[in-house]
Write a structure and sequence with these properties.
This protein has 297 residues and is an alpha/beta fold. The chain folds into two domains: 6-255, Spore Coat Polysaccharide Biosynthesis Protein SpsA, Chain A (Alpha-Beta Complex); 257-297, no CATH class. The protein contains eleven helices and 13 strands. It has helices at residues 37-47, 62-67, 72-80, 84-91, 109-114, 117-120, 140-151, 213-219, 230-240, 258-269, 276-296; strands at residues 6-11, 31-32, 35-36, 52-57, 98-102, 125-128, 132-135, 154-160, 170-177, 183-190, 201-209, 243-247, 251-254. The strands form three sheets. It has a nine-stranded mixed beta sheet with strand order 5-4-1-6-11-8-12-10-9. A two-stranded antiparallel ribbon has the order 2-3. Strands 7-13 form a two-stranded antiparallel sheet. The structure holds uridine 5'-triphosphate. Residues 10-18, 56, 103, 106-109, 111-112, 129-131, 256 line the site of uridine 5'-triphosphate.
């Protein structure tokens, strides 16, 4: 059985939930303290043993390509000034096996993944959404690869979400739990109404897929929101070969949402060696102030 070596990071969405910041800036470049979101995703891929990464970019995504390229002028300047710590940080993002392709129109996540057909070839691969951060002892992508090594089947990461939020996600109709705690799945449904949702297990931003998904995506008609939905293609794949779901029990940060972004920045800031003490004190003082104002009302 082929090894999982390749990852696709779709980063060509319009990011309408984050306007106006995303008018000219890719949301995947929004920094969490001092690191662009997409760099965390690339690091998760590398920690999971991925060797080759394709980033699907769209309009105003040049900054992503530039971020992972060398910047001679900046590096020269930092060297001249003896700023070796900063130089090390800048160096971290160069020399990674990254490739880029453009999605000409943001027709949906399924269409973004379809752009990776030639890059992936006939191998299993992972899809890692460029605006979803996952924290766990073992990276989620690595968990999915370990599942694949045992089952040789596609596996989609899911997580319990509040019932009223299911309509923002793809949702699974689980059939039962078997091998390694994986769910067998009856159906995958994109953005169901809460009253029609088959469960509260929502598809989150990590997928391990077999290459047969591409033939399905090639023919996939637009679905919810008039977009080519990856969930619909996965549902079709599940009719001809097993597709499992793994429930993620770590922490997920939705950076593409304004409130999600704020929470991510605060939590990562509380772990950042340079700012964590000051930030903690700031939050404590702010809490006291808010408490006082609340009591005075
Ligand atoms: P989202 O639905 O979160 O992205 O897609 P979006 O459409 O940019 O966001 P909003 O809802 O308008 O704020 C999940 C991921 O899929 C990528 C996005 O960049 C994001 O990382 N995507 C989505 C594409 O690459 N192409 C698309 O056509 C749609």
């Amino acid at each position: 059985m082929p090894k999982v070596r390749k990852a696709v990071i779709p980063a060509a969405g319009l990011g309408t939930r984050f306007l106006p910041a995303t008018k000219a800036l890719a949301k995947e470049m929004l920094p969490i303290v001092d690191k662009p979101t997409i760099q965390f995703i690339v690091e998760e891929a590398l920690k999971s043993g991925i060797e080759d990464i394709l980033v699907v970019t769209g309009k105003s995504k040049r900054s992503i390509e530039d971020h992972f390229d060398s910047n001679f002028e900046l590096e020269y300047n930092l060297k001249e000034k003896g700023k070796h710590d900063l130089l090390k940080l800048v160096d971290e993002t160069t020399g990674i096996g990254l490739h880029f392709i453009r999605q000409s129109h943001p027709r949906g996540l399924g269409d973004a993944v379809l752009q990776a057909k030639a890059f992936v070839g006939n191998e299993p691969f992972v899809v890692m959404l460029g605006d979803d951060l996952m924290e766990d002892k073992t990276p989620l992508t690595k968990q999915l690869i370990e599942d694949y090594d045992k089952t040789h089947a596609s596996t989609i990461a899911v997580m319990k979400v509040p019932h009223e939020e299911v309509s923002s996600y793809g949702v699974i109709a689980p059939q039962g739990r078997g091998l390694n705690g994986l769910y067998s799945v009856e159906n995958f449904v994109e953005k169901p109404k809460p009253e029609e949702a088959p469960s509260d297990l929502a598809i989150i931003g990590r997928y391990l897929l077999t290459p047969e998904i591409f033939d399905i995506l090639d023919k996939q008609a637009p679905g919810a929101g008039n977009e080519i939905q990856l969930t619909d293609a996965i549902d079709t794949l599940n009719k001809t070969q097993r597709v499992f779901a793994r429930e993620f029990t770590g922490k997920r940060f939705d950076v593409g949402d304004k409130f999600g972004y704020m929470k991510t920045s605060i939590e990562y800031g509380l772990n950042h060696p340079q700012i964590k003490d000051n930030l903690k004190q700031y939050i404590i003082d702010l809490g006291k102030k808010l408490d006082k104002t609340h009591k005075e009302k």
